[in-house]
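Researcher: We're teaching a course module on how sequence relates to structure. For the next exercise, students receive a sequence and then see the predicted structure as tokens, so they can try to spot secondary structure elements on their own. Here is the exercise chain.
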Amino acid sequence: MVGLGAVVVPVVGPDPGPALAPVSLHAAQVSGPRLVGAGWTSTVDAPADLVGLQWGGDPSARFDVQTRNGRGRWHTITTVGYEADHRPDPGTAEAARARKAPSSEPVWVGHASAVRVRLARGAVHDVVVQEVRSPSETPGTNVAGASSVTMPGIISRAEWHADENLRLNNCPEPPDISTNVKIAVVHHTGGNNNYGPGDTPAIVRGLYGYATQTLHYCDTHYNFFVDRYGQIFE
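Model: And here is the predicted structure for the students to work with:
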């Protein structure tokens, strides 16, 4: 998925329909205060849709995130670490509220029944795996693709069922909004492409829940998300 950086086009799309079950998060501490080194592994034998990591020690540490298939074999989804340039702007109120310990970007693991993390680099302690469950809608529900290059359709926060209380609990003051934005910039890609078009609303809800409840951000990371199918989410 990629993030975009502007808010200048109208929101269009179908009625959001009934509310979904809320995103739930569970923090599983998988190591203690003693340092562990490269090659250390730990398994969380519980279902998750999206996971993130927090730890103490080396902020440049990197972790392999793996899931188990039906035949009991482990598959590496991606490698994650602390990305300082993805954090809130220094000196802002959001930066003051945000979690200070190293934290990874969240990773979509596709309705995994178990997750394993392996320390690929560094020495760390107090590793926590944040398991996020994000209920899916019926595939294809509340999905709207981009309609044109100059005026794309955008799936609104109401349509992907954003729980606005999550951001208001952290930051009750209104966000800063520019009324004179000229361009939108694609920031970067992230995650993997192992999902269907009906999965994206659940992925976005999971990203939002992780950002607000684990990282203590005011909101999710970007103004927009664009999935592999060209769907744009506010």
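Model: If you want an answer key for the exercise: DSSP finds three helices and twelve strands in the chain. The first helix runs from residue 93 to 97.
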